[in-house]
């Protein structure tokens, strides 16, 4: 029986578990559509998590 903390393989990608950060809308871009320092901090925090796959499906640019 599979558990959330078991290793999973997606083609050549090996994940330590089944946890995924789904695509979200943060509404934190600058007026000209650029990433802000606050937005960088959010992604930095997510990126250092040893147990998370980040799924980002789309981005909107002005």
Write the topology of this structure.
Layout: E1 8-10, E2 13-15, E3 20-21, H1 37-47, E4 53-54
Parallel strand pairs: 3-4
Antiparallel strand pairs: 1-2
What can you tell me about this protein's structure?
The chain has 1 helix and 4 strands, in the order E-E-E-H-E. It has about 60 residues and is α+β, with helices and mostly antiparallel strands. The N and C termini lie far apart (about 45 Å). The mean pLDDT is about 80. Helix 1 links the parallel strand 3 (about 20) and strand 4 (about 55). The protein has a two-stranded antiparallel sheet with strand order 1-2. A two-stranded parallel sheet has the order 3-4. It has one helix spanning about 35-45, and strands at about 10, 15, 20, 55.
Number of strands: 4
Largest sheet: 2 strands, antiparallel
Outline the low-pLDDT stretches: none
Shape: elongated
How large is the radius of gyration?
Answer: 15 Å
Write down the oligomeric state: single chain
Number of helical stretches of at least 4 residues? 1
What's the end-to-end separation, in Å? 47 Å
Lateral arrangement of strands in the main beta sheet: 1-2
Order of helices and strands: EEEHE
Which key features would you list for this structure?
62 residues; alpha+beta; two-stranded antiparallel ribbon; two-stranded parallel ribbon; 1 helix; 18% helix; 16% strand
Short description:
Helices cover 18% and strands 16% of the residues. It is α+β, with helices and mostly antiparallel strands and 62 residues long. The radius of gyration is 15 Å and the shape is elongated.
